Amino acid sequence: GSPPKIPGGASLDFDVELIGFGDKEKSKWEMSPEEKTAKAEAIKAEGTEKFKAGLDFAAAAALYVKAADWLEEASALRESCFNNAALCYLKAKQFVDAIKFASKAIEDEPKNSKAFYRRATAYMEIAEFKKAKSDLDSAQ
Fold it and tell me: Which residues does 29 contact at the CB level (< 8 Å), separation at least 6?
């Protein structure tokens, strides 16, 4: 068959049925610090699942970074998110990003041995051996 012929200038009436309606998620600025922490923990858990699946380390890293972005101040959770992102970027062979996020973990916790080790590993991969040695000395 052919489609119906509707004359030009004709008025059309439609009936629309709303199937569902959900609550709108709060924006970041509307949330309390506790709600932001809970949101960050949920996103971090998603990143951990992706990491454990081992299929897409860059996507897992992006989730860890997104989780950290929900936290405005340095905390153990934010440090952990940055550190996990650095590990994911190492596994994805994105060494510059690994350095960036290991550095952010170190900013949050200057005695973070894991972050120093991860950053040193990334430095070695890009042939920055003096920086790698310095980080390994700091990791002890």
Answer: none
Looking at this protein, which amino acid is placed at residue 63?
L
Amino acid at 130: K
In the numeric block, the tokens 């996103």 are attached to 43
Amino acid at site 86: A
> Which pLDDT does position 1 carry in this prediction?
66
Helix, coil or strand: residue 4? coil
Give the mean pLDDT of the chain. Answer: 93
90 Cβ contact list (under 8 Å, min separation 6): 98, 118, 121, 122, 125
Question: Residue 103 has which token pair?
Answer: 């550095």
* SS (HEC) of 65-93: HHHHHCCCCCCHHHHHHHHHHHHHHHHCC
Total number of residues shown for the chain? 140
Q: What is the DSSP string of 23-41?
A: PPPPPGGGS-HHHHHHHHH
Burial of 25 (0-12, 13-18, 19+ CB in 10 A): exposed
